[in-house]
Amino acid sequence: MKNIFIFTFLALFSAITFAQKSQIKFGKIDSDLLALKAYDADTSAGALIINDIGDISITYNDLTGFAVNYTRHLRVKIFNSSGFDQAKFKIEYYKSGSLEEKITKLRASSFHLDENNKVVRTDLDKDNIFTEHISSKEKSKNFSIPNIKEGSVFDLEYSMTSELFGLLPEWNFQHDIPALISELSVSIPEYFNYKRLLKGYLTPTATDSKTTNRSIIWVNSQSTSSVNYTEYNTKYTFLNVPALKEEAYMNDISNFIAAIEFELGSIAFPQNYKDFTTNWEKIGNDLWFDEDFGAPLKRSGPLKKEAEALRIAYPDPFERMVKAHEFIRNSVNYSGANGIYLSESLRKVWDEKKGKSSDINLLLISLLNECDIKTNPVILSTRSNGMLHPGQLMVNKFNYVIAEAIIDSNRYLLDATEKNLSYDMLPLRCLNGNGRRISRESSENDWVNLNTPKEDSRTYYNKVTLDASGNLSGDFSIMESRYFAHNRATDIREKNNEEEYINEFEAEIPGLQIGDYTIENLNDRTNPLYLKFKADIKTNPENNTKDIIYLSPTLGMGISSNPFITEERVYPIDFVNPWSSKNICIIDLPEGYEVVEMPKNISLSLSNNKGIFKYIAVVNGNQLQFQSVFSIKTPLITFQDYGEIRELYAQIVAKNAEMVVLKKL
């Protein structure tokens, strides 16, 4: 039955002609859809988009003129609890000067079958739609579809209108769940010139275009006349869209979805032409005069006394910068919200000691400038917001701002939102290609590389003794720097206590039993994090003497599985930063045994010195000395080199599985 339903459903959509609206009506739910248990093309999917139909049109009203109208009708089938998050929504809308987007219609309903196979409908109550004030320029409507259960279907429909012609909605054809159909119709009068950017790795199933002749009554200060114009209509249809699934070492999944964006180039009304193309000098100038961005930085800030104290206490500019960063980082709490504009005045942010990333970092910029350290804002797009397209000059594509302090000829990128990061480490969410410096001096406006050349490092150092039963005991240590250390420290802090973390760490290595342990520099990222412990690795709980002993030189601390599973990949491999991992083991061997089999030493490398792996194991008297090094020097690797790095990992996994074999004399 479900296969027949899916086939019928797709056939229905294939029959829709260009001129027709979607045949699916809000609230009209087929009982077969409610009974559907899974999607055969992707049985792992927790939900399925039945239809996602959008319409963007610029239409004319005799009283108000042209306006952008946007509608969306989304229908989703929920299979199990993993799909429940699909029923949570945040619809953002914007304001620029006196113009703003308005949500003119919003309705949603869920449907499910009760125990008597009767359809139960639950409508979204207006009281459960919440308005979030993100900044003076941004708001959102936040809500969840009510009464979602396994097997539910929900409908969502909303409409927006505005005169913000430079802000046509972006449309995503692809999501993290599969879709039967995603379709967008775009109707643009000849007067509006937009650049269209199709993103992602999928192409439309169909792209249909036509023109429509329109007639309007045109009114200006001199006359009223009838005007004919051409409307350009395009429909983009994607059928059977697969879910975009996250793969290992992948930038945020949103960077790779099939989507379309629009950038306004010009508007040419009869007898009136306006060029909307822009440049960074104009964007920078507009931002510097914006009351929610640059204007407060040109005035005396709320931390004048604190700045004076810092200047006196720390005459060295570099030390003063570090202390100013620490002061803001430790004083103001990050709300988790991002943006490039202030949500409150700098004074209010300081008084409340809480704010968005933009509130905190613009306050930091204000303080640093008061400290006589020249500092510029750098706007960027976080990893979850998407990579920036270098050809797009659109401020709304940026959602974060950090500080760039300049001391002599050195530039330092600073962010004060994370309590446990040092001054020289941006949050991982910010490491997303390039940001844009916004300076009062237009000649300094330029792209800024956000990713650091500094290496994240990890070193295992273990000195242990192997006994005749094949068990090991001794001293173990892990030393990590920068983001390796930050990630482990975050894992430790998220546990109820250190003991809970140690128990989970033990479970990762078969037979590991940790005794005394110490954790050093947990909250200090200016120094390496150390995890030191005394432990046993019991592979033979009976402790009986063995004639043959199999020993892994890595002691279970090497790469044991290949993260690159798929045969092919179309996305870049993104390690974020260069890194290296070293494993050093000194193992005292038991008396009365000889080594009869040893892994061969190898050295492997990626082309163009992108990465290396070295494996060395030697026996010196009654001691096994082992060292391996795996280093990635080029953190962003194109998909064309996927096969090479996948094979390298496969060889490393195989090498780490090899054993030293000892035989009793």
Explained architecture:
Helix 4 (304-313) packs across helix 5 (317-331). The model is unreliable at 1-22 (pLDDT under 50). The strands form eight sheets. An eight-stranded mixed sheet has the order 6-5-9-2-1-11-14-13. The chain has an eight-stranded mixed sheet with strand order 26-27-25-24-30-34-33-32. Strands 21-20-19-22-23 form a five-stranded antiparallel sheet, covered by helices on one side. With 665 residues, it is α+β, with helices and mostly antiparallel strands. The chain has ten helices and 36 strands. It folds into three domains: 2-15 and 30-275, Immunoglobulin-like; 280-449, Roll (C8orf32 fold), CATH 3.10.620; 456-664, Sandwich (Jelly Rolls). It is globular.
CATH class of the largest domain: Mainly Beta
Strand order within the widest beta sheet: 6-5-9-2-1-11-14-13
Spans of at least 5 consecutive residues whose pLDDT stays below 50 are 1-22
CATH topology-level fold name of the largest domain: Immunoglobulin-like
Strand content: 35-45%
**Percent in helix:** 10-25%
Mean pLDDT figure: 91
**What is the β-strand count?**
36
Radius of gyration over all CA atoms, rounded: 30 Å
- Tell me the number of structural domains: 3
Please count the helical segments: 10
